[in-house]
Write a structure and sequence with these properties.
The chain has one helix spanning about 1-15, and strands at about 30-40, 45-50, 55-65, 75-85, 90-100, 105-115, 125-135, 140-150. By secondary structure, the protein is mostly beta strands.
């Protein structure tokens, strides 16, 4: 048992001497970003302050809705992919938002989580809340949460 311990210590000392470090995830950071969607034709614009994510991009959506029969609102299930204008990559969010009778006719509220990413966003993960306000022909959404890179 003592030999095993000594061998482990020796390996650790050699790793430090060679500059081999432990790879860890970056700590989560607070993030806020905006998406403005137009319903017809479907199009969307993404903006952020550029500190964690790219500063601007476009969106595409795969969504469905449920709850029409409940008389308490509609739940949107959306897989939103953001493509960065600077070519740094894409990231996909899964979101669920409510609208209608229990939220008010002028907006939405819900939660989002990062599903995946490409390029600079391959290790992105995080989650948060969203609120949206209807605009003529679309919706303006604010996303707030925590993001980090693995």
């Amino acid at each position: 048992m003592r030999r095993l311990f000594n061998a482990a210590v020796a390996v650790a000392i050699i790793a430090v001497a060679l500059g081999v470090g432990v790879v860890g995830a970056a700590p989560p950071q607070t993030a806020t970003f905006m998406v403005v969607e137009q319903f017809d034709p479907p199009s969307g614009a993404f903006t952020s302050d550029g500190s964690i994510l790219c500063a601007s991009g476009t969106t595409s959506n795969e969504f469905s809705a449920s709850g029409f029969q409940s008389n308490v609102g509609i739940v949107f299930h959306d897989r939103k992919t953001i493509t960065c204008d600077d070519g740094s990559g894409t990231f996909t969010l899964l979101l669920q938002a409510r609208t209608g009778f229990n939220v008010g006719d002028d907006g939405t509220s819900g939660r989002w989580v990062v599903l995946s990413g490409t390029g600079d966003y391959a290790g992105l993960h995080g989650q948060g809340r969203l609120t949206g306000t209807y605009t003529p022909g679309g919706i303006s959404e604010t996303y707030e949460g925590r993001l980090a890179y693995r």
